[in-house]
């Protein structure tokens, strides 16, 4: 039986779109505040041009850009939108905050948004689905043809630990230090429609797979697979969903620039008839775990022969190697911010240092809210 086609809205240029999930914080308790709907309504009334989405949890607002040609343009839109959301949140006595997960909030006390598909997800996934107090970044990059999608996704999976280590910001969970850089990564993969994509070799393979998932009922409650990297056929993009939510625009700009450059780099390799990199599935899985566990301190597998290097060394070289392409794509300054993260430390490192010093996750929340307010991009 031939699977029904999945039309891919081909993008003639490598355009860009970004989604950034941020949460609302009660400044007294430092706990999550389920007032996203009120914030969104206030923004809609005062700034109708701002595109916000309700998310799985009532404490979360998702900032969604339009289609842009460059990273600075996308980040510029997010900066404007963030200011509008901050204005609305302050009217309600709230602060804005973003990380991969909240270090002490009780998932049992955080209501989900009133949307039938969300209720169906909880009904199906129960305990694991109820725990999704997690936030991430989704970066869309336009692709010219569906035949390029899976070779590029498989190549991007060799850079999974690089994208995650830069943004890992969820060491705390249920009041404890988990020892992980990104506990969000470990939580999210428990859902049946989430986790690493299979290494499909063609668009036809993807169509057959999605057909099977539809017949078996796997995706009946969501309509799609929420892989860490996936095709977004409706938009003609590859959607990279690897990263924890950053606490600030500056680090967001860095990971968006790196993602944009990597996708275009692999697309250009196809233009030149070059073979794209690919690792064995077990190496990809191990790299994902190492980045989630160790973050920027991870030793990652870099070849099919199981060679290894420190992810910080890899990232430093990537910034240099991709610099000419970043110039062409209009994001050289944003790509250089990767080096700034390597020097300052990732979000999980900053959070852990504070918690080890004070023993109080509320201090971590305060510091992370301050990063949202103060670490703006001037790249």
From TrEMBL:
Record EC number? 6.3.2.2
Among Gene3D superfamilies, the record links this protein to: 3.30.590.20
Record's keyword annotation contains Nucleotide-binding? yes
InterPro entries documented for this protein: GCL_type2/YbdK_subfam, GCS2, Gln_synth/guanido_kin_cat_dom, YbdK
User: Sorted alphabetically, which keywords does the UniProt record give?
Assistant: ATP-binding, Ligase, Nucleotide-binding
User: Catalyzes what?
Assistant: L-cysteine + L-glutamate + ATP = gamma-L-glutamyl-L-cysteine + ADP + phosphate + H(+)
Gene Ontology molecular function: any one: ATP binding
Q: Does the keyword Nucleotide-binding apply?
A: yes
Pfam families cross-referenced by the UniProt entry: GCS2
EC class of this enzyme? ligase
Question: Which GO biological process annotations does it have?
Answer: modified amino acid biosynthetic process
Instruction: State what this protein does.
Output: ATP-dependent carboxylate-amine ligase which exhibits weak glutamate--cysteine ligase activity.
Q: Which family does it belong to?
A: Belongs to the glutamate--cysteine ligase type 2 family. YbdK subfamily.
Question: What is the official name of this protein in its record?
Answer: Putative glutamate--cysteine ligase 2
């Amino acid at each position: 039986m031939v699977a029904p086609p999945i039309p891919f809205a081909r993008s003639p240029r490598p355009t860009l779109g970004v989604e950034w999930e941020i949460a609302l914080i009660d400044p007294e308790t430092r706990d999550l505040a389920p007032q996203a709907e009120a914030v969104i309504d206030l923004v809609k009334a005062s700034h109708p041009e701002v595109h916000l989405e309700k998310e799985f949890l009532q404490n979360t607002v998702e900032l969604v850009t339009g289609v842009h040609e460059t990273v600075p343009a996308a980040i510029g839109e997010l900066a404007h939108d963030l200011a509008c959301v901050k204005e609305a949140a302050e009217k309600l006595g709230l602060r804005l905050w973003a990380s991969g997960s909240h270090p002490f909030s009780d998932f049992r006390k955080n209501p989900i948004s009133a949307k039938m598909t969300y209720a169906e997800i909880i009904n199906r996934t129960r305990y694991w689905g109820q725990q999704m107090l997690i936030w991430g970044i989704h970066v869309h990059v336009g692709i010219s043809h569906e035949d390029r999608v899976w070779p590029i996704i498989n190549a991007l999976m060799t850079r999974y630990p690089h994208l995650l280590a830069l943004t890992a910001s969820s060491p705390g969970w249920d009041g404890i230090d988990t020892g992980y850089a990104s506990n969000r990564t470990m939580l999210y993969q428990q859902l049946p429609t989430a986790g690493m994509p299979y290494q499909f070799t063609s668009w036809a393979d993807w169509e057959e797979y999605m057909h099977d998932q539809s017949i078996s009922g796997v995706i009946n409650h969501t309509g799609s697979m929420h892989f860490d990297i996936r095709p977004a056929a409706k938009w003609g993009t590859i959607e990279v969903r690897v990263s924890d939510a950053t606490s600030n625009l500056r680090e967001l700009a860095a990971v968006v620039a790196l993602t944009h450059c990597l996708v275009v780099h692999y697309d250009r390799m196809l233009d030149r008839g070059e073979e794209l990199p690919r690792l064995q599935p077990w190496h990809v899985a191990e790299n994902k775990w190492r980045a989630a566990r160790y973050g920027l301190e991870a030793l990652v597998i870099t070849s099919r022969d199981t060679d290894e290097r420190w992810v910080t060394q890899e990232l430093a070289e990537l910034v240099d190697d991709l610099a000419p392409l970043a110039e062409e794509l209009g994001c050289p300054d944003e790509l250089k911010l990767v080096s700034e993260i390597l020097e300052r430390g990732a979000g999980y490192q900053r959070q852990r240092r504070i918690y080890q010093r004070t023993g109080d996750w509320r201090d971590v929340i305060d510091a992370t809210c301050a990063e949202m307010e103060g670490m703006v991009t001037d790249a």
